[in-house]
Write a structure and sequence with these properties.
The chain has eight helices and five strands; from the N terminus they run βααβαααααβαββ. It has about 200 residues and is α/β, with parallel strands linked by helices. It has three domains: about 110 residues, no CATH class; about 55 residues, no CATH class; about 30 residues, no CATH class.
């Protein structure tokens, strides 16, 4: 079984948001067109899992709107030297506390600013890692036989990149411990390895 994790981007995403993406993938999976798929029924070999984190932003956005004049109390700024992000953060909080708070700045840009400029990013990465780990544990995931991948959109690509970098680190993490490196494998349609790349994450810090 191959588990496909679907990760949303910025904006209001409620549970069930991934249905359209799942429908598109199934629509283009055509055994009648691609002969090598004939023996691989989609539902027998693939399973979708939706990953959600927008609720974290929404919860804190409401709190920020209530305490716009006490910004430092509700969120610790990770990089106070970044004036661009700090300026955007102030605008987001001001917009969230001024009805109607449904503009693009609040519903979309806020997610990016919260993730990059505040400690909410750590909460998001933890929530995403926990959801993936829980799904793999629930499904009796066997690394010897099973595999998984991620399809992420927009802000979700940044969220997943950082989540995976934290997981594959020298410190005990999400799926591995030991040397800080990631092995990327490119395979053909028959599952044969075409090429392998080892990325030393420690050199990227």
């Amino acid at each position: 079984m191959h588990v496909i994790f679907l990760v949303h981007g910025m904006g209001s995403s409620t549970p069930g948001w991934s249905k359209s993406a799942r429908d598109i993938l199934r629509k283009h999976y055509k055994p009648e067109k691609y002969a090598f798929l004939a023996d691989f029924a989609f539902d027998a070999h693939f399973a979708f899992e939706e990953v959600n984190y927008n609720n974290i932003f929404d919860r804190y956005l409401v709190e920020a709107g209530k305490q716009a004049d006490k910004l430092g109390r509700w969120s610790k700024l990770v990089d106070p030297a970044n004036q661009v992000l700090n300026g955007l953060l102030g605008r987001v909080v001001a917009a969230a506390s001024t009805p109607p708070s449904t503009g693009f700045l609040v519903t979309h840009i806020a997610d990016v600013v919260f993730f990059m400029a505040t400690d909410l990013g750590e909460h998001v990465k933890s929530a995403v890692a926990s959801q993936i780990a829980a799904r793999l544990a629930k499904g009796k995931f066997d690394p010897a036989k099973d595999s998984w991948s991620v399809i992420a959109h927009s802000l979700g690509t940044r969220v997943m990149t950082e989540t995976l970098q934290v997981g594959f680190s020298a410190a005990p993490g999400f799926l591995s411990v030991g040397k800080a490196r990631v092995l990327l494998v490119i395979r053909d349609a028959d599952g044969r390895d075409v090429n392998r790349f080892t990325i030393d994450l420690s050199a990227m810090r």
